[in-house]
Structure formats: structure tokens, C-alpha cells
Amino acid sequence: MTETGRLLGSGKEAEVFEYGALALKLYRPTASKASSFREAANLSILERLALPTPKVHAVGEFDGRWGVLMDRAPSSCFADQFVSMAGEAQLEEMAQLHRSIHEEPGEGLPSLMARLSARIRRAERLDASSRKRLLLELESLPDGDRVCHGDFHPWNIHGSGQGLIIVDWLDACCGNPLADVCRTYVLLRHAMPDRAMDYVEAYASLTGSEVSGILAWLPPIAAARLTEGVANENDELLRLAGLSS
Predict the structure, then answer these.
(1) Angle at CA of residue 157, ends 199 and 208, nearest 5°
(2) Radius of gyration of the chain measured on its C-alpha atoms
(3) In the chain, what is the straight-line distance between the N-terminal and C-terminal CA atoms, in Å?
(4) Is-above-0.90 flag for pTM?
(5) How far is CA 24 from CA 62, 74, 80, 187, in A?
(6) Cα 144 to Cα 102: distance, rounded to the nearest angstrom
(7) What is the per-residue pLDDT across 45-90, written as a single tens digit (0 to 9) for each?
(8) Domains, in order of start, for the chain
């Protein structure tokens, strides 16, 4: 029997370990059993598409934790050059990759609109009137039918060229690509505030989208993130949702 090897990466919800020639993503004990099956199901749906995703080999319980056994991503991370090189080339490369995701049909994946609505409904920092306003604002935005990664940022891109793999598809869904770009903006705004708007502009320029169309998703996207347990971001998320000055 293969033994779990060295730690390859760690995030809020899971850790990734060597497992022979493969990678084992183990969700933290606080995560639900459903998380591992959800990510495996998403990746299985995405296998039919021309996207650089890891192939799933098994889902199961490993040493008391639920996890997904999948292809191992290259050790090099796109974030290393994204952080160290401040030019437009990295922004454009990331935007090109994001666009390639959005060119694929999202049939079979969960609805992005339904997910955002559910998270806004259960966000504890919202009062009834704010919740109602945000839900109405969400309903006014155009739905879509494209693959959306749901957590697209430089740390989820590994390798380059033909060996490139995009990881962490737990929140993959079917929806409007502009909402997915707005989600990336929110993530970058906290981690790399000087590059967040540059990325939005790079994607808009590449795809012919309007920056205003991307930022129109900001209130519901920010409000939905309030459910993710990132307490150090909550004040900023409330501002982005238009709920505080």
C-alpha cells in the first residue's frame, strides 16, 4: 500500500501530499465529506474538456481524512513569477488562461448564481435589508453557461506550456465568466492590491469585455465570500459589497 509522502502544499481547506507518483489532496478534519466528492465530481466533468486539469484516480478516506487522489501538478507555481515580475506579460498570460477556461461549456457543473444566492442568504454579517438588496442585485445580473473556476488566482496555476495544470476545482461552476473574473479581483485585491485592477483591465482588453461589467458583480461576490471564514477580510468585503464606508 502506498504511503502518504511529503507535504506539497497547504490551504485553508486542505493539504496536498505526495502519494507515489500522484498527489493526495486531504481535506481538513473540519471539512465535510461532501467536499472531496464534490471536487472529484467537478474534475470528472471537466475531463471531457480541453482544459489543463488533474485527472482523478480515487476518492476515499485516508488516515481518517477524506481526500482525492489525482495527477500531481508541477512544483513550479505561476505565482512565483507573478509576484516577482511586475510587467504586463504575466497579467496577460493569466488572463489568456482564464479566457480559455471560460470558452468551455459548463454543462453539468453547479450553478454559479445558485451558489452566490445561497451564500448571501446564510452570510451572518448581513442584516435583512442588506441581504434583500444584494439578492435583488444578483438577480439583475446576466447569467451564463460557461465553465467558471470559482477560485482562480496565481497560486492555483502550476507549471508552464504543455505541462501546465490548474488546481483546486472545488468551487467550479457554470455561469457568467465576468463573475469569475470579479471573484479573482476580490482575491487579488486582498493578496496583491496593486495588481487586482490591472488584472481586470488585462482580461477586459483581451476579451473585449467592459471593466464596468466585471465590477458590477462586486457586491454579490464580496458578500458571498463573507461565508468563507476569512475574518481578516470581512471589513473590506463589507465595503466592497457597499455595506460600509
Answers:
(1) 35
(2) 18
(3) 56
(4) yes
(5) 9, 14, 23, 25
(6) 10
(7) 999 998 999 999 999 999 899 999 999 999 999 998 887 776 688 9
(8) 7-71 (3.30.200.20), 78-240 (3.90.1200.10)
